[in-house]
Design brief:
227 residues, FAD/NAD(P)-binding domain, 5 helices, alpha+beta, 2 domains, three-stranded antiparallel sheet
């Protein structure tokens, strides 16, 4: 992706062939560890700021039972386990009079240490993560030592950024600065923590920046990048 005087050239691969399209402006909503590798012309200090943002692996494990096993709460925290909390998948509709629960699907959120990311890169490691979740779930309380009919793991290697010293006040303001016609969003553009709310705020900010740029209005001082 290259920002020119009149447009932004976006190159991609389709059917094995490189193609390019031109746009008046582009909002890059990818995580910064991806953004810095595909946006050409980033200032060194901005690229370095993007590189400083760290991300944790955060797989999600679904335990699927053919009968009710746990319906006591929709989001139950489980300290000391391989997962932080377990969510009952159908909690929104399970109290409707016409609803009959055929399966009990429990979603276990499983944050991991950065150095353990490698477990998600192959089937053996991913199975080990899922097995640890099932083991700890079955030990939570009496009556939960039940074998599921299926266990699904969704491997997310870099979904959440790590809140580190200086990230909110120094790193993110530099990482999200616009590059002429290229504007930056994603949850890692805002702080102080990685949430959906911050992703929405980042998108709204980027849209306002695009509108200002296309209308020929001056950019807010924070977002102006020195040439």
């Amino acid at each position: 992706m290259v920002s020119n005087k009149e447009d932004v050239q976006v190159t991609y691969i389709e059917a094995g062939q490189p193609k390019s399209v031109a746009a008046k402006a582009v909002i890059m909503a990818t995580p910064k560890f991806i953004t810095r590798r595909i946006v050409d012309g980033l200032p060194d200090n901005q690229s370095d700021a993007m590189h400083q943002i760290r991300y944790i692996p955060y797989p999600v494990v679904n335990l699927i039972f053919d009968k009710p096993v746990f319906n006591h709460g929709y989001d139950t925290w489980c300290p000391g386990s391989a997962f932080t909390d377990v969510v009952v998948a159908d909690w929104v509709i399970r109290h409707q009079l016409s609803y009959k629960q055929k399966f009990n699907i429990l979603t276990c959120y499983t944050p991991m240490k950065e150095e353990d990311r490698g477990y998600l890169l192959n089937e053996i490691g991913a199975r080990r993560v899922a097995a640890n979740v099932l083991r700890d779930f079955q030990k939570l309380m009496p009556g939960l030592n039940v074998d599921p009919i299926e266990v699904h793991i969704f491997r997310r290697g870099h979904p959440l950024y790590v809140s580190t010293p200086g990230l909110y006040t120094e790193v993110q303001p530099l990482a999200r600065r616009s590059l002429d016609r290229i504007f930056f969003a994603n949850t890692d553009s805002e702080g102080p923590e990685s949430t959906i709310n911050e992703a929405v705020l980042a998108a709204q900010r980027a849209v306002k920046e695009v509108e200002a740029r296309l209308a020929g209005k001056p950019m807010p001082k924070e977002h102006a990048v020195a040439g």
